[in-house]
Amino acid sequence: MTGNKTTNENRFRFGRNWKNYLHYLDESQIQNSMASLKLMLEGVDLKDKTFLDIGSGSGLSSLAAIRLGAKVTSFDYDLDSVKATKGLKKKFKIKSDWTVQQGSVLDQNFLNSIGKFDIVYSWGVLHHTGNMSQALANTERIVKKNGILFIAIYNDQGYKSVIWRKIKLIYNKYPLIRPIMVFIFVLYFWLPKSIYDFFRLKPFISWKEYKKRRGMSPFFDVIDWIGGYPFEYSKPEDIIKYFRVKNFTLINLKTCGGKLGCNEFVFKKNE
Fold it and tell me: Phi/psi zone of residue 158: left (φ > 0), alpha (ψ -120 to 50 degrees), beta?
């Protein structure tokens, strides 16, 4: 597992991205998020379970958990993300069983104040804290015995990950060139697929399928990716080894096949 130092000036403000994304959120994306959660938590009934969403972002995963019957607590370090999650809660008129707070997974006093949970969920967040090792340690402590931990962590691609970290730092350090970088990387990720779709007479089908599968707009995902700093990463075996020592059992794993992206882990905490 790798580490890097950061400052608030260089930190990507994910909340701004999520507030924009909410304008495009529709019911199909909520249903896809619910399906994705159920798939990874295979066989785990969320009804009346306490569910913690660390780094709630848009609030989409929290809403999916609510729809599946959980009692949800959401928090995020980024105030705009907190506003986005609260906005989603208000939009869907959720009156109970959903608490939204501002807080940090690195703040042990804050974590002590919210207690322990049946299910702790953090998708693509802990590697953006600036101290992933501490974030992992703090997260495992707030899972109840026999509880479930579901996390997603960036895959370690060796030198490629080092290059991506530099790109992300540049994006955050130099605001004036951000639109140019977004344009370049939307083309980088999507132009070859779009050309392929065009020649098979299915224009933009990859873009549409990605949105349906991921439950998020590809455009906002690109911004989230190139802006996502701090940026740490780990090999799947290192994450598995870490939690095995902490008395967790791996019950589900979805890797990105050694490529760019996140590896997803579902662990059960033993008694």
Answer: left
**DSSP state letters, 167-217:** HHHHHHH-GGGHHHHHHHHHHHHHHHHHHHHHHTT-TTHHHHHHHHHHSS-
d(CA 53, CA 123): 8
The 8 Å CB, 24+ separation contacts for 94-97 are 94/63, 94/66, 97/66, 97/70, 97/71, 97/72
How far is 48 from 112, CA to CA, in rounded Å? 22
How do 143-154 and 117-123 pair as beta strands?
A: parallel
d(CA 230, CA 24): 26
pLDDT along the chain (271 residues), means of 10: 56 70 80 93 94 96 97 96 94 93 97 98 96 98 97 97 96 95 95 93 89 72 90 97 97 95 96 79
Distance CA 117, CA 121 (A): 10
User: Which H or E run contains 75?
Assistant: strand 71-76
State how far the Cα of 77 lies from the Cα of 206, in Å rounded to an integer. 33
Cα separation, 106 vs 104, in Å, equals: 5
Would you mind telling me the total number of residues written for the chain in this entry? 271
Cis previous bond, 179, omega within 30: no
Indicate the pairing of strand 143-154 with strand 248-254.
unpaired
Burial 188-216 (b: 16+ CB within 10 A, else e): ebbeebbeebeeeeeeeebbeebbeeebb
Look up the pTM and report it. Answer: 0.88
Single-letter code of the amino acid located at 29: Q
DSSP structure string for 103-145: --TT-HHHHHHH--EEEEEEES-GGGSS-HHHHHHHHHHTEEE
- All structural domains of the chain, each given as residue ranges with its CATH number in brackets, are 8-157+230-269 (3.40.50.150), 159-227 (no CATH)
